[in-house]
């Protein structure tokens, strides 16, 4: 892989904005460099543009050096930046497995980049030959989501490594649900695979969707390009403070994950006893994809009982399916009770 040939020329040659806070490093007590208001501490100051403390904590937790970490305003920013860094609008294309997370396509459309979808097999396994066959010399990125949203299955690390080795562009593996998965993380192969970018997020297992913090792991060369293209102060100081607190309590997160895995098992057991449920797909995430007798009717019924699930009835390969997030025991019981009422109606 030749990174320079993959990155858009204007981005490769970009002279990034140099903020007051990034030019100065060291100790000082009088800050008259950034036209801030000296009142209203601590909100008056611009945040650390490189989020040094947050990255150090993530580095410790994931055993990846801080220089291989980028932080964005949710994975959403990490996704959008991938297009802006690698894909020339109207010229380049990307290849993605389908069905998968909708934001990859939305960001492709916004950036005017052709989005090529390669269907998963009926059992939702990944066909890497078909992914490679869909690529040409204008294909800059491949999108893999593992565990996949909305199907719930994870792909083997061997398959994903092979895809990285055989494709000469960038492979992005979105691991938003990795903490719920039996399949390990691709992070253990990061140092051997220079074209791999792994996304994780604080929005799911870490219970912090509100604060908007997404993580990209990649080679230092790729991370440096991400860092020069982002808005200088993309991650607010409020988010950084919160993330430092949250990342310091990873024991609590592990407890949440254990509880949710138990609740997932109970939920699947109860769902499997219902007549309206035709199939429950295996899951490595904090949700289950279920095929039901009439997805639209059941969706409306649940909605009228104040229960919202995700209707995937019109998504390819997911006809007749609802995607159900694993909640608390109480929430899951409410769902099951409403489904029992649906069957008796
Ligand atoms: C929920 C989810 C995310 C999280 O996105 P954020 O912007 O970090 O909240 C990322 N990828 C996938 C596949 C998801 O399902």
Layout of secondary structure:
Blueprint: H1 3-6, H2 9-12, H3 20-23, H4 52-62, E1 69-72, H5 74-86, E2 93-98, H6 103-110, E3 114-119, H7 128-134, E4 139-145, H8 157-166, E5 170-174, E6 196-201, E7 214-217, H9 220-229, H10 237-247, H11 250-272, E8 277-280, E9 287-292, H12 295-304, E10 310-311, E11 321-325, H13 329-344
Parallel strand pairs: 2-3, 2-4, 4-5, 5-6
Antiparallel strand pairs: 1-7, 6-7, 8-9, 9-11, 10-11
Helix pairs in contact: 4-10, 5-6, 11-13
Bound molecules: pyridoxal-5'-phosphate.
The site of pyridoxal-5'-phosphate has 13 residues, from helix 5.
Total strands: 11
Cα gyration radius (Å): 22 Å
The helix-and-strand class reads: alpha/beta
Distance between the termini: 59 Å
CATH H-tier superfamily of the largest domain:
Type I PLP-dependent aspartate aminotransferase-like (Major domain)
Question: What does the main sheet amount to?
Answer: 7 strands, mixed
| CATH fold label of the largest domain | Aspartate Aminotransferase, domain 2
Instruction: Return the string of H and E elements.
Output: HHHHEHEHEHEHEEEHHHEEHEEH
Overall domain count: 2
CATH-scheme architecture of the largest domain:
3-Layer(aba) Sandwich
Proportion of residues in helical segments = 25-40%
Ligand roster? pyridoxal-5'-phosphate
User: Can you count the helices?
Assistant: 13
